[in-house]
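If your schedule permits, I should be very grateful for your opinion on a structural question. What I wish to show you is a protein chain and, alongside it, a tokenised description of its three-dimensional fold. Would you kindly read the sequence against the tokens and tell me how you understand this chain to fold? Here, with my thanks, is the record as I have it:

===
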Amino acid sequence: MPAAHAPARGGSVRAPWFVAMALMVLIIWGNSLVPGMESGGLSLSVVSTIRGALDALGIPSAWVTNFLVRKAAHFTEYAVLGILAARAFDLRRGAPSARIALACAVLVLVPSIDEAIQLFVAGRSGQVTDVLLDCCGAATGACLTALVSSLHRP
């Protein structure tokens, strides 16, 4: 088995993927520390860019809203976290239930802490619905990764 795919000692965590997962957590939490006005401005610039690209292609763009961009960003960043967690904890078919439980705990705690952080940042608020959306993104990323891994390995 190549070193890139070998589980870490003890078989529970793959170190390079764990480091990537930890960095993603820091990025997510760092985004939550951005004050509301600045975060909102960034979202609006993304909306403007997407609308401009769609308009240039002759595609209607009014449906691209700040709300949609913000929620898509939540889902996407947590889908990436789910992918990294699935790789870090090696969540292939037959993975021990303790390892699956640990990955699930991480993928619920990180968004919960993320929303709690926002309670202390000017212009931000923690939302239970965002925790649910984040968990759905994480589950999607982890499940897709496990599915793809099971299709490519005996």
User: Anything to note?
Assistant: The two ends are 13 Å apart (CA to CA). The chain has one domain: 12-152. Residues 128-152 form the longest helix (25 residues). Residues 12-152 form one domain.
